[in-house]
Design brief:
Translation Initiation Factor IF3, 22% helix, alpha+beta, 29% strand, 2 helices
């Protein structure tokens, strides 16, 4: 997994760096960003290319985005395209095989809907 530190970089820089890494053969990337707009733009790119997407948040300005390909590493194989959020904060995962969203609130916090 290639790590991309895009903290402090405005869009579309995180998207460009991530896409370049994936097109260069990286089967997956972990992108560190500091704003939710970058997270959303990375999600659109990943799902549009057939990659799995997940992110975790430690604060309002600290996100880790995972973009993962299939078991074949190209984003277009037989995998289910699902990532798995991690970290101490909340996580969301989505797949391009329909609408799949899973929200996990940070430890010790209740989810009210």
């Amino acid at each position: 997994m290639q790590i991309i530190d895009a903290m402090g970089k405005a869009c579309p820089i995180p998207v460009i760096q991530s896409r370049k890494a994936l097109e260069g053969g990286a089967g997956s990337v972990l992108v560190k960003v500091d704003n939710i707009a970058a997270v959303r733009n990375l999600e659109k790119m990943a799902l549009g290319l057939g990659y799995g997407f997940s992110y975790s948040s430690r604060s309002e300005a600290d996100f880790e985005v995972r973009i993962e390909g299939s078991e074949h590493g190209d984003g277009h194989g037989d995998g289910d395209g699902r990532g798995d959020g991690r970290g101490d904060g909340s996580s969301v995962r989505a797949a391009n095989t329909g609408t799949v969203l899973e929200f996990t609130p940070p430890a010790g916090r209740k989810l009210a809907i």
